[in-house]
Design a protein that fits this description.
globular; 29% helix; 6-stranded mixed sheet; alpha/beta; single chain; 4 helices
Length: 143
């Protein structure tokens, strides 16, 4: 995690940020880190989209995966700021229990729901104020 992003989240967004290094988990594998965050109720933030995006979203308290080259500091900060502005309108906990893939054009969120007794993984894309979903289900009277 680049220092500029840690500082940005702590100062501009006033978030508590614990890094893997802070927790003496720098050499820990991805799944153990994800499980630690799930047990502790922490939202995981990572640039490791390739590995974390594969995890079942129900196995996460929440993940923000940044799909932008980490050397592009201005783009990363703008994307994080845009997400925080949007998420502030929709409720900060709206992505908990799922994962979020943030890029310069918006973000995709994946989460699990049960519909008709079966689990479904839903992917919802936000770009600006536009929303598209791969699958949406509203609970009916029997749910």
């Amino acid at each position: 995690m680049p220092k500029y992003l840690i500082d940005h989240l702590r100062t501009k967004h006033r978030l508590r940020v614990d890094t893997a290094a802070d927790l003496a988990m720098r050499q820990t594998d991805d799944l153990r880190i994800a499980n630690y965050c799930l047990r502790k109720g922490l939202i995981l933030v990572s640039f490791n989209v390739k590995d974390y995006w594969r995890i079942d979203p129900s196995r996460s308290f929440g993940m923000i995966l940044i799909d932008i080259d980490k050397s592009k500091e201005d783009q990363v900060k703008r994307a994080v700021d845009a997400f925080m502005r949007h998420n502030g309108r929709t409720g900060r906990s709206s992505f908990r229990g799922g994962m979020l893939r943030l890029n310069t054009g918006g973000y995709v969120t994946r989460f699990s729901i049960r519909h008709g007794g079966k689990p479904h993984i839903v992917a919802v894309r936000y770009s600006g104020d536009r929303l598209e979903a791969d699958f949406m289900a509203m609970p009916g009277p029997e749910d």
